[in-house]
Amino acid sequence: MSEILSRYCPRTEFESYEDFYDNYRCNVPDNFNFAYDVADEWAALEPDKPALLWTDDAGVMRSYTFGDIRRLSNKAANVLLSLGVKKGDVVMLILKQRPEVWILMCALMKIGAVCIPGTYQLTAKDLEYRCNIADVKFLISVDDAELMENIALVRRNCAKLEKIAIVGDAQIPDNYINLRAQIDKAPDSFSRIQSNVKDTMLIYFSSGTSGMPKMVLHNHSLPLGHIVTAKYWQCVEDNAVHLTQTDSGWAKFAWGKIYGQWICGAAVGVYDTEKFTPKGMLDAIQRIRPATFCAPATIFRYLIKEDLSGYDFSFIRHTTVAGEPLSPEVYHKMKELTGLEIREGFGQSETSVLTAAFKWLPVKPGSMGKPSPLYGLQLLDEDKNICDDGIVGNMSITCAGKNIYETESGAAAMPGMFRGYWKDREITGNAWKNGIYQTGDMAWRDDEGYLWFVGRNDDVIKCSGYRIGPFEVESALMEHPSVLECAVTAVPDIERGQIVKATVVLAPGFTENDELKRELQNHVKRVTAPYKYPRIVEFVPELPKTISGKIQRNLIRKKDSGG
C-alpha cells in the first residue's frame, strides 16, 4: 500500500462495493498542496522511485524519478518567480506531453499560481479568447510551428499577457523565453510557500459541446478527489506503470496522468505523440508495458480495426475507458481480440469519477457502473425528485453526507468537486441550486443499481412521444462492420416532432450507397426497438469534434437546421 495514500485515507481496502460506498473517507488537510505533500514527499521517502516513463513516436524512452521531479520543479519554480510569476497569477501551459508538463504543474503549485492547461489544437481565435477572459499573464508553449504562429498572431490582442516562454529544442526567436535553458541554470532548492487547500489551483476550459467554453475552477483538493479515480476504478498499483492516453490540455489528464496515480505510488506512462495512429499507440504500449491502461472510447474503436495478433497485452492487468460511452460491440471485440475487460467510468471536467464499473462489480457492457462514494449522486426528474428504476433522470450531485470539508463561506465542499464557473455567477447558479449540482447528463438506473448513459439533456431525441437516447442508437450502429464512428441527432419533423438521424463514418473497405443505408436502418430495427431506427442516414468523412475529442452533435444539429 502507498505510504502517501494512507495519510489521506484512514482505510484503503474494502471487501465489496457496498463496503466501499458506505465507508470510504478522505481527509482534506487545510494546507494540502500536491506538489509539496505528494511529489516532494515521495522524493524525500524514496528519491529513486519511478515517477514518469516517457516515449515518443520515434521510440525514444526517458524515465524520471520523484527525486528528478522535485529537483526540476524546484528549478522551474525559481525561474518562474524570477520572471515575475507570483501567487494567484494565471499561467497557461500548452505543452502536449513533454516532461515539462509535470515539472511546471508542480512548480506552479509550489508558487501558488493558477494553471490553465491548453491543448496544442487551439486556434488563434481560441487562444485570444482564453487569454483575455482568464487574464493570462504568462503563456508557456511547446515549440510547435503552427501553435507559435497562432500565438504571434494574437499576442498584441491579449491585454494581460506579459511573457511567453517556449519549451523545445528548436531555434527559439529572441522575443520568447527559452525555458529549458533557464531551468537548466536555475538553483534546485526551494523553500515551501504557505498555501491553503481552498486556494485556486487549476482552471479547465469546458469542452464547449454547446456555447462558448466555460472556465471550470478547481482548488487544491482536486488531487485528493482523484484517489477514487486512480485506486478503485483504474486500479493503479504502487511501483507499477499506469498509462492514460490523453493530451495534457484535457481534463482527462487530471484523471489519469498525475494526481491520483502519484498519490497511490504509481509511475505515469507517457506516449507523447504528434499525431495519433493505431499502430503508433500499439507500439508505444509495447514499449511502456503498463500494468493498467485507460483510453477514450475512440482509441478502442480504432484498435479493434487493426490486426492485433502480433501484440502482447499480457502485462496489462486492468483496463478502463472514459470520455465518452463505450458501445457493447467494442467491449466484446476488444475482449475477444486481447482478453482485456474494459471497465467504464464517467465524470466531467467539473469532477473526479462520478460513477464507474469499480473493481468489485461485474461488468455490464454499455453501463457506467455504480456511483462513487464521494458525491451522493442521484438521478433527479425536472421537479428534483429521485427517479425510480428505469426512468431517465438528470445525473445530480446532492452534496449529501460525507467526505465534506468547509469552505470559507461555511458551504459544503467535496474533494474533486469544482468550485464554480470562474467569472460567471449566472451559469454557476443555473447549474448549482440549493445544494444540488445538475450535470446535464441523462441516465437511467436498472434494478441492480447500475447506471446507463442516455445523453446530454439537449441531445435526447423526442420522437412521437418516445424519448430516445443517442447512445443506444449509436451502440446498435457500431455493431455493424461498416461503421467506424457515428453520431445520432434529432431532426425536426412536422408529424413526429423530431426524427432520428445517423451521421456515419464508414470503416475502410465500405462504400456509401442507398443499399447500405437501408441495411443500417434494418440493422438498428433488429437489435433495438424499431421506433429508434434512423430515418435519415448521412455518410461523412469525419465527425465534428471538440479539441478534447468529443463529438459535437450540436454542430450537426445546427447544420441540419440551416444555421
Helices and strands in order, then pairings?
Blueprint: H1 5-8, H2 17-23, H3 34-45, E1 50-56, E2 61-65, H4 66-82, E3 90-94, H5 100-111, E4 114-117, H6 124-133, E5 138-142, H7 145-154, E6 163-167, E7 177-178, H8 179-185, E8 200-205, E9 215-219, H9 222-233, E10 241-244, H10 252-256, H11 259-263, E11 267-272, H12 278-288, E12 292-295, H13 297-303, E13 318-321, H14 328-338, E14 342-346, E15 355-356, E16 370-371, E17 377-380, E18 393-397, E19 405-406, E20 412-413, E21 420-421, H15 425-431, E22 432-433, E23 436-445, E24 451-456, E25 461-463, E26 466-468, H16 470-478, E27 483-493, E28 497-506, H17 514-527, E29 536-539, H18 553-560
Parallel strand pairs: 1-11, 3-4, 3-5, 5-6, 6-7, 10-11, 10-12, 12-13, 13-14, 28-29
Antiparallel strand pairs: 1-2, 8-9, 9-21, 14-15, 15-16, 17-18, 18-23, 19-20, 22-23, 23-24, 25-26, 27-28
